[in-house]
C-alpha cells in the first residue's frame, strides 16, 4: 500500500504544480502578475546549477522580446510645436555677405573664388587650343617633346618662343589671356 500512496502523492503534487504554472502563465498573458510574496534569499556558491525545466530557457527568442524596451514618446507633439521646431530661426538660411561683382564680366561671384562665367570662357578657349594641338599632332597619343606657344592674330614669335611648337589662332587675343 505504501508504494501506491507515494505514487499518488507524487502525481497529485505534479498536477498541483502544473495548475499553478498554468495560472501564472495566464496572469502574465493578461498582464496581471501575482503580487510579490516573501522569499528566502541565501548567498550560495555559483556552482549550484539552475533549474533545467524553467520555461524561460526553453523558449526561442523572438523579435518581439526587445520591442518593449525601445524608446517611444509619451504623447504626440502638437502641430504648433512641430511648426515652431521646423521654422526655427537657426534653421533658416544664413545671409551671404561674401558676394561680389566680377570686375571682368559683371556677373555675381563669391569673394576669393573664380567667377564661374569667366572660368567657363577660359575652359572653352583652352579646349579649342587643345583641339588644334591634337589636329597638328595627329591624335591623342602623340605627345610632343617640346613646349607649346600660342600666338594670336597679329602676334609674332619672340626670342623665348624659339624651339617651341607654335599654335596660331585666327582671332584676337582675349583680354584675360596673358601674353607671357
Automatic annotation (TrEMBL):
Q: Name one GO molecular function term.
A: structural constituent of ribosome
List the SUPFAM superfamilies hit by this protein, alphabetically. Zn-binding ribosomal proteins
Ribonucleoprotein keyword on record: yes
Where does the protein end up? Mitochondrion
**A Pfam family it matches:** Ribosomal_L32p
Q: Per UniProt, which keywords does this protein have?
A: Mitochondrion, Ribonucleoprotein, Ribosomal protein, Signal, Transit peptide
The principal localisation class reads mitochondrion
- This protein's GO CC annotations: mitochondrial large ribosomal subunit
Role description: Component of the mitochondrial large ribosomal subunit (mt-LSU). The mitochondrial ribosome (mitoribosome) is a large ribonucleoprotein complex responsible for the synthesis of proteins inside mitochondria.
Designated name of the protein: Large ribosomal subunit protein bL32m
Organism lineage reads as:
Eukaryota, Metazoa, Chordata, Craniata, Vertebrata
Amino acid at each position: 500500500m505504501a508504494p501506491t500512496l507515494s505514487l499518488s502523492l507524487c502525481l497529485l503534487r505534479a498536477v498541483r504544480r502544473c495548475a499553478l504554472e498554468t495560472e501564472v502563465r495566464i496572469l502574465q498573458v493578461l498582464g496581471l502578475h501575482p503580487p510579490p510574496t516573501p522569499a528566502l534569499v541565501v548567498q550560495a556558491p555559483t556552482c549550484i546549477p539552475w533549474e533545467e525545466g524553467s520555461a524561460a530557457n526553453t523558449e526561442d527568442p523572438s523579435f518581439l522580446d526587445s520591442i518593449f524596451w525601445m524608446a517611444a514618446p509619451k504623447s504626440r507633439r502638437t502641430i504648433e510645436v512641430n511648426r515652431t521646431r521646423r521654422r526655427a530661426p537657426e534653421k533658416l538660411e544664413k545671409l551671404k555677405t561674401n558676394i561680389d561683382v566680377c570686375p571682368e564680366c559683371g556677373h555675381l561671384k563669391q569673394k576669393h573664388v573664380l567667377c564661374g562665367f569667366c572660368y567657363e570662357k577660359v575652359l572653352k578657349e583652352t579646349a579649342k587650343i587643345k583641339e588644334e594641338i591634337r589636329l597638328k599632332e595627329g591624335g591623342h597619343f602623340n605627345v610632343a617633346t617640346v613646349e607649346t606657344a600660342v600666338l594670336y592674330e597679329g602676334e609674332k614669335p619672340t626670342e623665348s618662343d624659339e624651339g617651341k611648337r607654335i599654335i596660331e589662332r585666327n582671332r584676337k587675343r582675349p583680354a584675360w589671356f596673358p601674353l607671357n
